[in-house]
Write a structure and sequence with these properties.
elongated; Na+/H+ antiporter like fold; about 300 residues; 5-stranded mixed β-sheet; 11 strands; Immunoglobulin-like
Length: about 300
C-alpha cells in the first residue's frame, strides 16, 4: 500500500560554503508496519550561477535504525536546470519493518561541498490501521473479561485473611524482593546478552522486568488451590510499589539502553488503572458474597472456568 505523506523541502544555499537546509512540512512523520509510505521531497538550488558544478548529484536517504524501516529508492539523483527553475522533486519510499521510533536521515557525498544544517527527522513506525482497530476491539473485550473475572475472584476473598497477611507481611516481603530486586536484575542481564545491538528492544524488555505483577498470578492461584488472599495482597502491594520502583530502576539502569533524547515517561496512569482494576471489582465481589455467602461455591466454579480460558 502506497501513501503520500507530507512534503519535505530541501533548500541548497550556495555562498562560499553552501548549506543544505531541510524543512519537513509535517510535524510528525508516521509510517505503518508492513506498508510503504511515499514522501514527496522538493530540492531547491539557490545561487545556481555560483554552483554550476552542483547541478546534478546524489542524495542518500536512510533509516537510522535499519531494523525499524527501509528506504527503497536511495540514492536520489537531483538535477537542476532552467526548465525546472532549479527545483527537483522526488519521492522517497519508506517501508515499515518493526514498531518503534527512528529517524529519516539525508546525506551527501564528501566530494560535494555542502553543509547540512539539518539532516534527520524523527519517524514513528506504528501498526497499520486495520490491526489498530482489531487491537482496540480486543483490548475492550479483554478489559471487560478481566474485570468480570476479578469481580468473581473477589467472592473468594476473606477480609480477615488479607489483614493477617498485612500484619505479618513475610510473604509480601518475599514477593516484593523477587519482584523488584531479582526480576529487574535478571531482565537487565538478559537484555544485555540476548538483545545486544537492539537498544529499543533492550529497553522494552528491561521495562517489563521492572513492571508489577498482574492479575494472571491470582487466576493461577485459584486454579491450583493456592492462598488467594495472600496472592491478591501481594498483587496490590507490588502494583502500589511500582509507583516508586519503576522510576527508580529505569532512572538508574534503564537510561543506558535508551537512545533517544525525549524524556522517559513512566506510565503512572496505567499503574493507577491497574490498582483500580484490582481493588474495585474485588471489593464488589467481597460485598456480594457478604450478602450471598451461598453463592461462593458457584462463583468459584465460574472463575476457574474463566481463568482457564485466559
Amino acid at each position: 500500500m502506497l501513501r503520500v505523506f507530507g512534503v519535505i523541502s530541501i533548500i541548497l544555499t550556495v555562498s562560499g560554503a553552501a548549506n543544505l537546509d531541510v524543512y519537513v512540512n509535517e510535524s510528525d512523520l508516521v509510517i505503518y508496519d508492513g506498508e510503504t509510505t511515499s514522501f514527496l521531497v522538493t530540492f531547491t538550488l539557490l545561487d545556481f550561477i555560483e554552483a554550476t558544478d552542483l547541478t546534478s548529484f546524489p542524495v542518500d536517504v536512510m533509516c537510522e535504525d535499519a531494523d525499524l524501516c527501509r528506504v527503497d529508492n536511495t540514492p536520489l539523483w537531483v538535477d537542476f536546470n532552467e526548465d525546472n527553475r532549479y527545483q527537483h522533486e522526488s519521492l522517497v519510499n519508506v517501508t515499515g519493518l518493526f514498531l518503534g521510533r527512528t529517524s529519516l536521515v539525508f546525506g551527501i557525498g564528501k566530494e560535494i561541498t555542502l553543509n547540512i544544517t539539518r539532516s534527520r527527522f524523527q519517524l514513528r513506525v506504528l501498526r497499520n490501521e486495520t490491526l489498530q482497530m482489531l487491537n482496540t476491539i480486543f483490548t475492550i473485550f479483554l478489559v471487560v473479561f478481566v474485570t468480570f473475572n476479578t469481580f468473581l475472584m473477589g467472592t473468594q476473598l476473606n477480609f480477615g485473611m488479607i489483614m493477617r497477611a498485612v500484619k505479618k507481611p513475610v510473604g509480601c516481603a518475599i514477593g516484593f524482593g523477587c519482584q523488584y530486586t531479582l526480576m529487574p536484575m535478571i531482565a537487565y542481564a538478559t537484555a544485555l546478552v540476548v538483545l545486544s545491538g537492539y537498544p529499543s528492544l533492550q529497553f522494552g524488555f528491561f521495562a517489563v522486568g521492572c513492571s508489577p505483577g498482574g492479575g494472571q498470578s491470582n487466576m493461577y492461584t485459584i486454579l491450583l488451590g493456592g492462598n488467594i488472599d495472600l496472592s491478591v495482597t501481594m498483587t496490590f502491594f507490588s502494583t502500589a510499589a511500582a509507583l516508586g520502583m519503576m522510576p527508580l530502576w529505569i532512572t538508574l539502569v534503564g537510561q543506558s539502553f535508551y537512545t533517544y533524547s525525549e524524556e522517559i515517561k513512566i506510565p503512572f496512569y496505567m499503574i493507577f488503572s491497574g490498582l483500580a482494576g484490582l481493588i474495585v471489582p474485588s471489593a464488589f465481589g467481597m460485598l456480594l458474597i457478604h450478602y450471598k455467602p451461598d453463592w461462593a461455591k458457584t462463583c468459584k466454579t465460574i472463575v476457574k472456568i474463566l481463568s482457564l480460558l485466559m
